[in-house]
Amino acid sequence: MRYLKQCLLGMLIVIVLAACGGATPSGSGQSGPIKITFWYGLSGANGNVVQSVINKYNQSQNKYHVTGVFQSSYDDTLSKFNASIVGNNLPNVVQIYDIGTQRMIDTKKIVPVQNLINRDHLQSIVDDLEPAIRSYYTIGGTLYSMPFNSSTAVMYFDKNAFRQAGLNPDQKAWTYDELLAAAKKLTTRDASGKVARTGVALFDYAWLFEQEEAIQNALQATPDNGRTQRATKFVFNNQAGVNWLNFQKQLLDEGAATYSSSSASTDAATAFLSGKAAIMFDSIASLRGYIATAQKNGGKVDVGTAYMPRETNAQGRNIIGGASLWITNQGTSEQQEGAWDFIKFAVQPELQAYWSSNTGYIPIRLSTYQLADMKATLTKYPQFQSAIDQIRAAPTNYSNAGCIAGNLLTERNNVQQAMDGYLTGKISSAQTALDQAAQKSNSSLDEYNSALS
Q1: Contact 286, 387 (CB under 8 A)
Q2: What's the rounded mean pLDDT across residues 149-154?
Q3: Which of 4, 82, 204, 440 is deepest in the core (most CB within 10 A)?
Q4: Which domain holds residue 138?
Q5: Which is it for strands 64-70 and 34-40: parallel, antiparallel or unpaired?
Q6: CB 438 within 8 A of CB 237
Q7: Residue 166, by phi and psi: left (phi above 0), alpha (psi -120 to 50) or beta?
Q8: Quick one: 59 and 76 in the same domain?
Q9: At 136, which CATH number?
Q10: What percent of the chain has pLDDT over 90?
Q11: Quick check: 233 and 405 in contact, CB under 8 A?
Q12: How does DSSP classify residue 363?
């Protein structure tokens, strides 16, 4: 009988211990490093550098281990994050592109990095952020996510073609009228009269539209681009937007440009890098790849960069693009600390110099420019300087801080459809095209905002 009681007692202890062990949260009381999951959406060469940053972090310490999980694209990362909320199957850190900011805040599944900055007395990091970059991710005085890979749009041009046409390859900024005249000079024809090289290769991308609105100090949405309170109305169907569409249409009408309906830069980049177009507009993050491709193609194209073109007397500056790192509130406290530790590592000036030098993104930290590696990169690739100077060309205001709204992906698609309709002659005027896009975007915004109330 005593033996039976001892057996039953032993079995009870085993069951209790097993139950306690099964309730232990991931990352708490485990042997080995605490596991941190990081979702990111950069692919190709830049995605490889993301993995390299992860490897550097894991090798730098043994308390945490970050596992990077590629999510196909920026869009897919945001979509999967929202789909995973119901099952609480979220990563500890996630890279989300700029236009996902309001949507991420609205999930209520994130820890604002400002909270951790204040707790750890690390305001010096915030003060060292590039002002244009800091302003985008700061809403209502709160830095919600940590900038990581930041870019802006530039004008790429072939220096060789400019010299041949008698144009100044060192000119930083071009007005619409100046660039239209230049594009005509740059357009050449063969003996049969067929266009051999066009002035500008255009493609249908709303991010470039947003850049041009900011340069002209125009808001995309009210109030204050969603910076002081939730955006309630899109107003991008303004004169600034009309100016940009009409400039592109004039280039096309005068035979000085080609146009691709795709929002991907592939067609325009192929034309530019093969010498069939002298100018294109795209992200500075593409610089390293464009230079490498031009060299592989025999060096016929000498890649230069300048500011995005602008309406005469426009006094604004570009907005930024790219993505930032968000900490979720779904992991254990240890995992949240690990996520924060990884982010602090990734934004160190030394890591930002490595990141920028190997990708083409703008360093987020001002102190990065004091490092030998970054100085060497700027010496080797002086084309970077156009992007840096451009985002510092005017003080920050609500227009150039960038628009924050919950349905920006839908809004961008609407703008792209409107631009395509006008540039292909299906819609009679730029104003009509943008009015239609604004109407659809505002209906979507009302629906989004109402769902949250």
Answers
A1: no
A2: 97
A3: 204
A4: 34-150+321-391
A5: parallel
A6: yes
A7: left
A8: yes
A9: 3.40.190.10
A10: 89
A11: no
A12: P
Verify that 183 and 280 share a domain, yes or no: yes
Confidence of residue 193 (pLDDT cuts 50, 70, 90): confident
| Letter string b/e over residues 54-68, b meaning 16 or more CB atoms within 10 A of that residue's CB | beebbeeeeebbbeb
State the pLDDT at residue 31: 76
End-to-end CA distance of the chain: 66
Go through 206-217 and write b for each residue having 16 or more CB atoms within 10 A of its CB, e for each that does not: bbbbbbbbbbbb
Q: What is the mean pLDDT of residues 179-201?
A: 96
**Residue 30 — pLDDT band, cuts 50, 70, 90?**
low
Which DSSP helix (H) or strand (E) runs through 131? helix 131-137
Helices (H) and strands (E) in the chain, counts: 20, 16
Q: Is 44 left (phi over 0), alpha (psi -120 to 50) or beta?
A: left
Same domain (yes/no): 381, 410: no
Residue 24 lies in a domain: no
Q: Do the beta carbons of residue 421 and residue 433 sit within 8 Å? A: yes
Are residues 365 and 304 part of one domain? Answer: no
In the chain, how many domains are there?
2
Query: Do 209 and 303 have their domain in common?
Result: yes
Position 252 in a domain: yes
Whether residue 371 contacts residue 352, with contact meaning beta carbons closer than 8 Å, is answered with no
For residue 40 the two structure tokens come to: 């990111």
The verdict on residue 91 lying in a domain is yes
61 or 8, higher pLDDT = 61
Which residue do the tokens 């899109």 mark? 234
Residue 216: predicted pLDDT = 97
* CA distances in angstroms from 287 to 97, 104, 120, 186, 360, listed in the order given: 19, 29, 36, 22, 6
**Encoded tokens for 171:** 């000119």
d(C-alpha 166, C-alpha 160), whole Å:
10
Contacts 24+ apart (CB under 8 A), 448-452: 448/405, 448/406, 448/407, 449/230, 449/232, 449/406, 452/106, 452/406
Spatial distance between the Cα atoms of 401 and 389, rounded to a whole number of angstroms: 16
Residues listed for the chain: 453
Mean pLDDT (whole number) for 397-407: 96
| 3-class DSSP assignment, residue 311 | coil
